């Protein structure tokens, strides 16, 4: 599976670190960039640990690439600071920051062979020839490209070209590698495969990686932590699990898990829970405890995978199954809720016991899976 020739150690396990990390910590403080009146990046701050895989995730135009380009040195910030391994690099030229880059366009030199492309960063740094030969050989082997060293980029597939681009970034062991949608041009199958390989190699070498994508699944698979960006701001910077289970805003809940939202009001606080009365059906729903006063209008948010079918009398609402799509291990269903608490509740149920179209059902959720957000519109 892992063509990079490394074992695939606990892929996707946040925080798994190798014994020796070649990465360095990176810190960004109050980074800001404007273009005329438009604010592209607004006071972005984050501390990234050595060996951590961090992803900037957001919709088009949210400021991901601008933030990455400021870290790389290709775009000058209006204000703020960037430090790598404790050294302030904010005003340094890109080549003086000693960072590796991999972009969506492979940007390989077409007239050079694979081996020459990978050797290039070492030649620039004046590394002796024998050493270059050894390190290029090792890196190509790790990427499963040893047999292709003599080919030119046009004689390679897209996936192979992207592996060469990755080798060229890895060969001089930069303490931080920046990747901007590196798999964006590849088909889904190849993308999935290279995600596993990039993660494996990052863990193996203990690299610090900052990765840009607008693909939520890719971000979840790869990252120790994800910075969800919106309108130039970091909306939440957290582990995939925290973002998914404890989103701090309705935007994050919707962006990461496509949450269901139901309008209601806080009814009562207990020591362990917050009780919510749904607006239209009057159903009572238990959420994990939030610090909200009785009477406050809220949006109740539950991820589709955390809703369950139960007996109509046992749920916080009832409805009729309107759609049911078999997608392998689960059935994705849409439930038309009585009295209009939500247009159509989206849920996932195990395929074996999945709901069928036309069935009358109750809907339940564990309190711990129910998040509340104050409803700013107030109603
Ligand atoms: N050179 C520029 N001149 C003017 N505006 C710019 C420039 N570069 C970026 N912007 C604006 O800054 C904002 C953030 O752009 P950025 O490319 O960082 O977003 P992004 O999240 O990376 O988007 P995408 O996923 O589409 O690449 C956008 O509104 C964009 O139009």
From TrEMBL:
**The EC number(s) this enzyme carries:** 7.6.2.9
Q: Where is the ABC transporter domain?
A: 26-256
Q: Which organism is it from?
A: Nonomuraea polychroma
Keywords, ordered alphabetically: ATP-binding, Nucleotide-binding, Transport
Q: What is this protein called?
A: ABC-type quaternary amine transporter
Entry's Pfam families? Answer: ABC_tran, TOBE_2
Recorded hits in SMART domains, A to Z, give: AAA (SM00382)
GO cellular component term of the entry, any:
ATP-binding cassette (ABC) transporter complex
Q: Does ATP-binding count among this protein's keywords?
A: yes
This entry's Gene Ontology molecular function terms read: ABC-type quaternary ammonium compound transporting activity; ATP binding; ATP hydrolysis activity
